[in-house]
Amino acid sequence: MDTRTRGLVFASSHEADPAAALAEIMAQIGATPLAGAMLFCSHSYDRDALARAINRNSEGLTVIGCTSSGEMTAIGYDQDSIAFIGFPAEAFHMAAHCFDEIDAFDTQGAAATIRSLAARAEMGSRALGEAVNHVALFLVDGLSHREELLTMTVQDALGDIPLIGGSSGDGLLFRETGIFHGGRFHVDAAVVAILSSIKPMHVFRSQHYEPGPNKMVVTGAIPVERIVTEINAEPAAEEYLRLVGHPGERLDIGFFAAHPPMVRAGGEYYVRSIQSVNPDGSLTFYCAIDEGIVLTIGEPVDRIAGIAALFEEIAGKIGEIDHIIGFDCVLNRIDAERRQVAREVSLLYARNHVVGFNTYGEQYHAAHVNQSFSGLAIGQ
Question: What are the beta bridge partners of residue 87?
């Protein structure tokens, strides 16, 4: 009898002390031999202390992770916690590489490194059997403004291996996020891990908005800073508010989450979320932006029905769901709370074994997207 059917192991902790949190997590996991692990942690933890605690409990194990803007655990939406995902060695193999100083990212060198990583994953996973599936998990500094370049470069080098991931967060402070690899937290970094398994795996992307009738053209921008200064030749914030709100209404993160701009690319619409309004009336975006782009204001669809249909679709592709590693934009969570459906969303996530974190953006194949619920579904 083939016993290599063990599913993901998952544990979480709300202990404020990093050492106590990791001790609780390890006690939940037990002695299961792991091929690798991921963790997502609240930005409130002391990173050096947390790194030491992780290292004491994971000697010889490849662990990747990042800071978050909220976590998803066995109860659904969570916060002020550490979420730990372990990949049992009898069904998984994991190989990872971290890119530091991504502000000076070398695309040619990175492509060669990723191809080498893929070859190493292929060779290392042969012991699992002949029918092995591969997926690349990608975590990148959510304040780097480099997600588009990195995502395209990495996916191109991966070839047929699909990429899925998220941008690290720090609550809603927008000061500094952390990427964990090699026993420490890095800034201005990204990590790629190729996960190989005998289990069925499926990457997906979904969003809870559709294009509405209101359109606007970016007529002034500072692309390198993701700032839009003018829309329709008018001050950006003022014109955006005129199109979708009411005079005097407050432009805050809840407003941006409820009225996301969308752009059409390749026949599909993708959200281009606004991060903040600046003192000069310009708008800072989470995604790349440039002059001449036509944006359409998104309107909400039935989120609960859409998520339920998504899980049914995933089950149709992979069978019974073991776990879903989810990358859910923090703006989705804020908008769900504003629309008073967060509890229903949370219950759906819990019932379908979604674990992961709230992001500053999501990576799907070669695209960096916003305000999506994306992830990796793993079958039984």
Answer: 36
Tokens of 220: 């002034």
Global pTM value? 0.94
Q: Residues 369, 138: contact at Cβ < 8 Å?
A: no
Amino acid (one-letter) located at 123:
M
**Residue in 196, 187, 198, 156 with CA at minimum distance from that of residue 62:** 196
CA 362 to CA 379: how far, in whole Å?
Answer: 22
More confident residue, 7 or 166: 166
Neighbours of 174 (CB within 10 A): 15
Q: 268 by DSSP, 3-state: which?
A: strand
- Please state, in angstroms and rounded to a whole number, the distance separating the CA atoms of residues 229 and 218: 8
Q: So what's the pLDDT on residue 2?
A: 34
For tokens 């996020």, what's the residue? Answer: 177
Specify whether the CB–CB gap between 43 and 359 falls below 8 A. no
Provide CB contacts within 8 A for 363, sequence distance 6+. 138, 140, 147, 151, 163, 164, 165, 166, 167, 327, 369, 374
Whose CA is closest to 191, among 100, 86, 69, 55?
A: 100
DSSP string, 294-357: EEEEEEE--HHHHHHHHHHHHHHHHSSEEEEEEEEEHHHHHHHHHTT-HHHHHHHHHHTTEEEE
**Model confidence band, residue 247 (pLDDT cutoffs 50, 70, 90):** confident
